[in-house]
Amino acid sequence: MGHYYGYEKILVIDDEKMILGVVESALLRFGFNVETASDGKEGIKKFDRDHFDAVITDICMPCIDGNDVARHVRISDRQNTPVIDISGTPWLTDDCDFDMILGKSLSKKHLVDSIVSIIADSAKGTLLTKMTYYRELAE
């Protein structure tokens, strides 16, 4: 399935290959453009090199964790990029740097709804048509 709009580029960061694959597959299925990173260091490098409409990161990763990734985004020149924690350990999340916190056991529909909602909020409602489209696909 191709990219329906080509605007929504999501960076997904997780050191668990299975989780990374599941999230990437779900987002690709609904037309998002997805870039992945297998740790926080790689994720920060990719964030600095490219533009992303949202960043999804795990918290518990070696060396540079998800909290560090979120802090990096917040001090960058793209500090308003939505950052979503998708974690099996949400209690380790530094809430002030994240726009949304999701557990790893969420459904694909909830994941897509959450991503679309946070991107739409960050774009001040300019993506309402796309939001409806993605939600219909997820049902």
Topology, number of strands: 5
Poorly predicted spans: 1-6, 124-139
CATH names the topology as Rossmann fold
Would you identify the CATH H-level superfamily? Response regulator
Spatial gap, N to C terminus: 16 Å
Beta-strand level of the residues, as a percent range?
Answer: 15-25%
What is the approximate shape?
A: globular
The biggest beta sheet is recorded as: 5 strands, parallel
User: Can you list the strand order of the major beta sheet?
Assistant: 2-1-3-4-5
Helix content: 40-55%
CATH class: Alpha Beta
Radius of gyration: 14 Å
Helix tally?
A: 5
CATH architectural group: 3-Layer(aba) Sandwich
The domain count comes to: 1
Structural class: alpha/beta
Order of helices and strands: EHEHEHEEHH
Average pLDDT score: 80
Topology:
Elements lengths: L8 E5 L3 H13 L3 E5 L2 H10 L4 E4 L8 H10 L7 E5 L12 E4 L4 H15 L5 H11 L1
Parallel strand pairs: 1-2, 1-3, 3-4, 4-5
Helix pairs in contact: 2-3, 4-5
Provide a quick synopsis of the model:
With 139 residues, the protein is an alpha/beta fold.
Could you walk me through the main structural features you see in this protein, from its secondary elements to its overall organization?
With 139 residues, this protein is an alpha/beta fold. It has a single domain, classed as Rossmann fold, CATH 3.40.50. The protein contains five helices and five strands. It has helices at 17-29, 40-49, 66-75, 108-122, 128-138, and strands at 9-13, 33-37, 54-57, 83-87, 100-103. Strand 3 (54-57), helix 3 (66-75) and strand 4 form a beta-alpha-beta unit. The model is unreliable at 1-6 and 124-139 (pLDDT under 50).
